[in-house]
Amino acid sequence: MGTHYATCSWTSTSGYQAQTPYGEIKMFEEGGHRAVELMLLAAASCLDFYLAEYVRERKLPVSQLHVTCEGEISQHPERVSAIRTTVKINGELSDQEAKKMVSMCERACKVMNTFKHQPQLHVTIEPLATAPSNK
């Protein structure tokens, strides 16, 4: 299935720089994103994508989808301890059809699955390559 990546770096001269294979993301500065909000956005956008694909593939009578993920912050250790997801559907679906669609799409969503099945985390420390000094 491959790997995905994102990088974030900071320098005293240019501040934060965040990058994905699709381009730079403004982080932490005025008007920039925050890491927790990006994590919640990843979950909301992943689920929204699968819901939209489900609707299109089945030609369902749905004109709009809206997914919100809200994180609850807890201490010791500080973290997002709960995520509440709300799916709003503008269309002609029965409650049973809507529940089936959301359930199937939630199972297909890599981000939701990552939250449900805690990934292994590995942190490695490596020295940064520095420019040679002009002595």
CATH arch. level architecture of the largest domain = 2-Layer Sandwich
- Quickly give the structural class: alpha+beta
Number of helices, counting only DSSP H or I runs of 4 residues or more: 3
Which stretches are poorly predicted, pLDDT < 50 over at least 5 residues?
none
**Using only CA atoms, what is the Rg?**
19 Å
- CATH topology call of the largest domain: GMP Synthetase, Chain A, domain 3
Judging from the principal axes of the Cα atoms, what is the shape?
A: elongated
Average residue-wise pLDDT: 90
Instruction: Count the E strands.
Output: 5
Q: Please estimate the helix content.
A: 25-40%
Q: What's the helix-strand series?
A: EEEHEEHH
- CATH superfamily placement of the largest domain: K homology (KH) domain
Distance between the termini: 48 Å
Name of the level-1 CATH class of the largest domain: Alpha Beta
Q: Walk across the major sheet and give the strand order.
A: 1-2-3
Strand content: 25-35%
Tally of distinct domains: 2
Descriptive tags:
135 residues; alpha+beta; GMP Synthetase, Chain A, domain 3; 2 domains; 3-stranded antiparallel beta sheet; two-stranded antiparallel sheet; 3 helices
What's a concise summary of this model?
The chain has helices at residues 35-58, 95-108, 110-116, and strands at 7-11, 15-20, 23-25, 62-74, 79-91. The chain is of the alpha+beta class.
